[in-house]
Design brief:
The protein is an alpha+beta fold. Helices cover 33% and strands 28% of the residues. It has a six-stranded mixed sheet with strand order 1-2-3-4-6-5. It has a five-stranded mixed sheet with strand order 11-12-13-17-16. A four-stranded antiparallel sheet has the order 8-7-9-10, sandwiched between helices. The longest helix is centred in the middle third of the chain and has 29 residues.
Length: 442
């Protein structure tokens, strides 16, 4: 007999039920989250051993759409489905951002979080519910996690806030804001607004936070009922003696290298300093060159941060409020409908505009009703923009996310097809990158 444990809470005017112990019991943690007729399966799995020779936390977050969740069969020749939709990619990023900082520092075990909508009612949108399901799966699992987090979408129609609006309400709202956070603080914001005052946005965040606390408390109650005990996972930590040796012998050289105003020259200088540190300390700490290099990287980050907090300057010598020189040019490309080149310091983006008919609109085949997009903004991050070589592949999550960010920034000021019966396609090519290429695309 399957032993199920469940909790429920009211968010806005809807009841959310989270249960564990019924399905996917081979995962470290699994929950079913229900809101109306929307049901999300959230799972969390961790490798038994830490990954060797990595200097990062190997976390993967995936949102797996299934058209069967809304009683649809995929269009086109292939019915199984292929690469994730843009909506799935953006939702995967939504899940990732608020939970990634909440894992213990130094964790090297692979962790995979999967959220899968099994049934979707369009009045109960699945994306923010998937964020909660992912957090709940981690919370009831034995995976070390300093959560939980809650997440809600706040809309505003005619000056009134709506918590977790339906798709129809979201489409006509003047504010569309996703807020995520723990019981103590907000950890992520993502949204767009039709020229809404800052005070209104702050008020919306406050309203959302009250609902986030309810979701966090429900997950904590679920973990307590389920008897969750967190595993003792080894955490990677640089030897304090090596770390102190790097600080004592090389902090000044690191600061000097960091203060080079040119990006390429600065990277070369810091790499040279790092190599010198490894060579200098290799005799004192034999056969620990990799650990010395990681200690050097940690001290570089420390000094980078101190420059801003203690001295009020950035690595290129600017103050935190100072903007790099900006230069713009339009009409560069004679055979396109519009073009603009934006340069800010060592960041440069070339954007072209293509004007098409209404028939050129993009058909969006999603869990929602099929729709058309008459305004699109694509972002491409080319390897030469950072002086690197790498194979050219299909757009990755970062490129899809930055394109959506730029698209949302202009969405509310671009006229709709009723006023402007054309399709607009903006294509931003990053030619140089030294920070904030997404905003340069806008």
């Amino acid at each position: 007999m399957t032993q199920c444990t469940s909790v429920e809470c009211t968010v806005g005017n809807r009841t959310i039920v989270i249960e564990t112990g019924k399905v996917a019991k081979q995962a470290n943690g699994a929950v079913l989250l229900r809101c109306g007729d929307t049901i999300i399966l959230g799972t969390a799995t961790m490798s038994s051993e830490p990954r060797e020779a990595v200097d990062f936390f190997p976390l993967t977050c995936d949102y797996e759409e299934r058209k069967s969740a809304v009683g649809k069969i995929s269009g086109g020749f292939v019915k199984r489905g292929g690469r994730p939709s843009e909506k799935a990619v953006l939702t995967s990023r939504l899940i990732d951002r608020p939970i990634r900082p909440l894992f213990p520092k130094g964790m090297r075990n692979d962790v995979q979080v999967i959220a899968m909508p099994l049934s979707v009612q369009l009045e109960c949108q699945p994306d923010t519910l998937a964020m909660v399901a992912a957090s709940a799966a981690l919370t009831v699992s034995d995976i070390p996690f300093n959560g939980p987090i809650g997440a809600v979408r706040i809309g505003m129609i005619n000056g009134e806030f709506i918590i977790n609006p339906s798709v129809e309400e979201q489409n006509i709202a003047d504010l569309d804001l996703v807020v995520a956070g723990t019981k103590e603080a907000v950890t992520m914001l993502e949204g767009g607004a039709n020229q809404v005052p800052e005070e209104t946005v702050l008020q919306a965040i406050s309203v959302a936070y009250d609902e986030i606390v309810k979701l966090c408390e429900a997950q904590e109650e679920l973990a307590q009922k389920a008897g969750t005990v967190k595993a003792d996972v080894p955490l990677y930590k640089v030897d304090p003696e090596i770390l102190q040796a790097v600080r004592d012998t090389s902090a000044a050289a690191i600061v000097e290298a960091l203060c080079d105003p040119d990006k390429a020259s600065r990277e070369n200088s810091t790499n040279e300093v790092k190599q010198e540190i490894v060579a200098r300390l290799a005799e004192q700490f034999p056969e620990r060159e990799v650990e010395i290099g990681e200690a050097a990287e940690q001290v570089i980050k420390e000094e980078f941060r101190k420059l801003i907090l203690d001295r009020g300057i950035r690595v290129d010598g600017r103050t935190p409020e100072q903007v790099r020189d900006i230069w713009c040019e339009v009409g560069l490309l004679p055979r396109v409908h519009g073009s603009g080149l934006f340069t800010r310091g060592q960041t440069q983006v070339l954007t072209s505009l293509t004007l098409g008919s209404l028939d050129d609109a993009q058909i969006v085949d999603s869990l929602e009703e099929d729709s058309e997009k008459h305004y699109m903004h694509f972002y491409n991050f080319l390897p030469f923009s950072t002086g690197e070589t790498r194979p050219l592949r299909a757009p990755g999550r970062r490129e899809v996310g930055h394109g959506a960010l730029a698209e949302r920034a202009l969405k509310y000021v671009v006229p709709g097809p009723e006023e402007f019966p054309y399709t607009l396609l903006l294509m931003s090519e990053v030619l140089e990158s030294n920070g904030s290429s997404s905003m340069a695309s806008v």
